[in-house]
Design goal:
This protein has 14 helices and 18 strands. With 405 residues, the chain is α/β, with parallel strands linked by helices. The protein has a domain of 98 residues: 3-Layer(aba) Sandwich (Rossmann fold). Bound molecules: thymidine-5'-diphosphate and zinc ion.
């Protein structure tokens, strides 16, 4: 049993995945012996509805100079952030604009503000990624965003029109301190905008691979509303996003400062209907996860028995959960192809499948490609016509296990 990271009440156990390595901890062979493992357990808080990890990994073990995630590797995500940035500029900036981004990564979003000469600060704890942003001319601090650092930013730059964060808020178990920082840094009419994988999609699609050490929270509009209320904020809008397999964008303002969209009430009513505020929904999800594992192993075993070659496509953080939970190693997956240079030549966390450059996939097409980067599935499948023409097939496991014919 443990206490909710948001409201402090008792959290109910939902699912244990067993001991997991660091999800983004791609490693060379000489580090295998030093690899650390942590239990991956999920719980649900019946008081505030927040789904969350109940055992946490030290943040320094996750976000450090070896952090291998560079957001700008996907063209579709670059486009997504550009649209996001211009929408924010048109909708929420005052005459003297100042934008703060939490987890600004390699500057994928802030580069749009830098281009428009808008005052901005990115907060990015992974030094190697922050450096990549600075090289693009983006003002970036290497630290974690919390109450103390928010006050420092305010002292140096003034109050913010917008504090934004994508795929980062769910990474911050000390979210109460983050929200304290947000409320002290925002202008009276300022807004906090963040987007993260949506628990409604995770449950609906059995996309359990979204669950890994970095994702401490699996938000819904209901749980975010509770959290907002604890800090004098409210959700004024919620916009579903078709990225990362289903995300939600939340817009929060000081209570009463701005109109609340009807969408907020509608989505919360849908969440009630989907059962996102009930433990039994997550228990049913846990059963679907176990079934998905069985189905995937059955398929892979059959294909191997038929002598087929299977390669992984996209060495995602998400794949770490699937590979380790299902016990899928190099005996099933020959290697994983990935376009990120710093992952290439390394091995996947825990199961130690080699990661190779994309060229290794193209130069000798396997019969099957297990699509770990399924959140970019449309983009990838549309591009891989040569693989298909050569008789190659994709294996998918989200929604359900199947071969894409
Ligand atoms: P990402 O979508 O960020 O997932 P996660 O958050 O789970 O790590 O990662 C996508 C990975 O897939 C990244 O390592 C780059 C790789 N990739 C390819 O190799 N080829 C592609 O065409 C795309 C879109 C991604
Ligand atoms: Zn709670």
């Amino acid at each position: 049993m443990c206490n909710c990271l948001v409201c402090g009440n008792k959290v109910e156990h939902v699912i244990s995945f067993g001991d997991m390595p660091i999800a983004n901890g791609f490693l060379p062979e000489d580090m295998f012996e030093k690899e650390k493992f942590y239990p991956l357990d999920v719980g649900f808080c019946p008081t505030c509805s927040m789904v969350q990890l109940t055992k946490l990994v030290d943040k320094e073990d996750m976000f450090n100079e070896n952090y291998a995630y560079f957001a700008s590797t996907s063209r579709r995500m670059v486009e997504h952030f550009k649209k996001f940035a211009y929408w924010v500029m048109e909708t929420y900036l005052s005459e003297d604009p100042f934008v703060v981004e939490i987890g600004s990564n390699d500057g994928i979003m802030l580069q749009n503000y830098a281009k428009e000469n808008i005052k901005h600060v990115g907060v990015e704890p992974s030094e190697n990624v922050a450096q990549a942003a600075r090289e693009k001319g983006i003002n970036t601090l290497s630290c974690f965003f919390d109450k103390e650092n928010a006050q420092k930013i305010k002292a140096e730059y003034g109050e913010a029109d917008v504090i934004a964060g994508t795929n980062v808020m769910c990474h911050l178990p000390y979210i109460r301190s983050v929200f304290d920082g947000v409320t002290s840094l925002l202008k009276p009419q300022g807004v906090l905008i963040f987007e993260d994988p949506y628990v409604g999609d995770i449950v609906r699609r059995t996309s359990y691979d979204q669950i890994y050490d970095e994702h401490a929270f699996y938000f819904s509009v209901s749980s975010v509303s509770y959290l907002a209320g604890m800090h004098g904020l409210e959700v004024i809008d919620a916009l579903p996003q078709n990225v990362h397999g289903g995300s939600m964008r939340y817009i929060l303002a000081r209570k009463g400062a701005r109109d609340v969209s009807d969408r907020v009430r509608e989505i919360m009513a849908n969440e009630e209907k989907q059962g996102l505020k009930q433990l039994s929904t997550y228990q049913a999800f846990a059963a679907n996860v176990a079934q998905n594992k069985e189905d995937l192993l059955t398929l892979l075993k059959r294909l191997k028995a038929e002598g087929k070659r299977i390669v992984g496509y996209g060495a995602t953080s998400k794949s770490t959960t699937v590979l380790n939970y299902c016990g899928i190693g190099p005996e099933y997956i020959e290697f994983i192809s990935d376009t990120t240079p710093i992952k290439q030549g390394k091995y996947t966390p825990g199961m130690h499948i080699p990661v190779k450059p994309y060229e290794a996939f193209v130069s000798d097409y396997p019969e099957y490609a297990l699509l770990f980067a399924w959140n970019h599935g449309e983009e990838i499948i549309a591009n891989e016509t040569a693989f298909k023409d050569a008789g190659g097939k994709f294996i998918l496991y989200v929604d359900q296990v199947r071969v894409d014919e």
